[in-house]
Amino acid sequence: MDAWLAAGAACMSAGRAKRFPLGLSDVMREPRGAPVLPGVAGSASASTATKPTLGGTRPREGVEQMRPFFDRMVPASPAAVPLSTQLALTSERVRQRMVERVRASGVADARVLAALAAIPRHQFVDPGLAAQAYEDAALPIGHQQTISKPSVVARMLELVAAGHALEKVLEIGTGCGYQAAVLSHLARDVYSVERVKPLYERAKTNLRPLRVPNIRLHYGDGRLGLPSAAPFDAIVIAAAGFDVPAALLEQLAIGGRLVAPVGSRSGNEQVLTLVERVSSAQWRESQLDRVFFVPLKSGVI
User: Fold this and answer.
1) Whole-angstrom distance, CA of residue 245 vs CA of residue 277
2) Which residues are catalytic (predicted)?
């Protein structure tokens, strides 16, 4: 029994002697490798294995087969990017060129030009017309209405601003909301009235991404103005009547300015007209440029 215990102790001592301290051969011994799974990247045999992966396809061949799928997800060239996206990426430069054309047309007010440069006009027109958004042209917005030419918008706003900061402005004819957006950079508060319900809703949709806090849209008869918010130090009418509605003249503050296209009874011409209120019972009128606008109508639809 004692001999057996002694032999066991000798074996244990020999084992400890081998483990503590470790011999050089133990330190240099290559560690046990992890089990290699077929087709798993990073394993010792993954880069050299010729065994097919699941489905009988090698990894490289699998990438080639998936490429058409990724081609559908990631456009291969700028030409594959939708036009609206291309314009969004380059619209600042395009807007600057538009502003230079407006400046060349005679608009000199730096604040008006800066406001034009700040608003992405292509977001206010139909996608099919986005390529024309920065041309100096009126474009259809549906319901027999149009978005006015940038040069005309700038001319009208330059006239009502007269080089001064505006406090409270009334716009008649919201349309798609573009002119209201430009006005928001020139006035503390902008009130805009639209009589066509779908356009009123569209303007709200167009303006929402811009998060403009100082525009208040109203659905109603523009010829009646907005008595609850009057008086206004500027009124801009974006449709042509045979005269300026009396309700709007009354809602113009003394010293305020109103600009509107006024048409002849024959319907052959329209003239951009500036009205200045000089007293409680007196207005001064100036006829300026020949223009063409959609008609100013009463009621709502």
Assistant:
1) 14
2) 148
148 is known as an active-site residue: yes
pTM of the model: 0.70
> pLDDT tens-digit profile of 207-240?
999 999 999 999 999 999 999 999 999 999 999 9
Helices (H) and strands (E) in the chain, counts: 9, 9
- Active-site option among 45, 105, 148, 286: 148
What angle do helix axes 83-104 and 150-161 make, rounded to 10 degrees? Answer: 50
At 242, list the tokens.
Answer: 């045979």
Which residues face 191 on adjacent strands? 170, 216
Tokens found for residue 178: 């573009």
DSSP 8-state secondary structure symbol assigned to residue 189 = E
- Strand 139-142 and strand 145-147: the pairing is antiparallel
Q: Give the closest residue to 167 by CA, choosing from 271, 253, 281, 46.
A: 253
Instruction: Give the span between the Cα atoms of 188 and 53, in whole angstroms.
Output: 67
Task: Count the Cβ atoms, other than its own, within 10 Å of residue 139.
Answer: 19
Spatial CA neighbour of 270 closest among 290, 245, 288, 285:
290
- For 47, the 3-state DSSP assignment is coil
Torsion of CA 128, 133, 138, 139, to 10 degrees: 10
State pLDDT tens for residues 16-33: 444 434 443 443 444 444
Q: For 210, which DSSP code? A: G
Chosen CATH of 85-291 out of 3.40.50.450, 3.30.70.260, 3.40.50.2000, 3.40.50.150? 3.40.50.150
Backbone angles phi, psi at 164, to 5 degrees: -115, 155
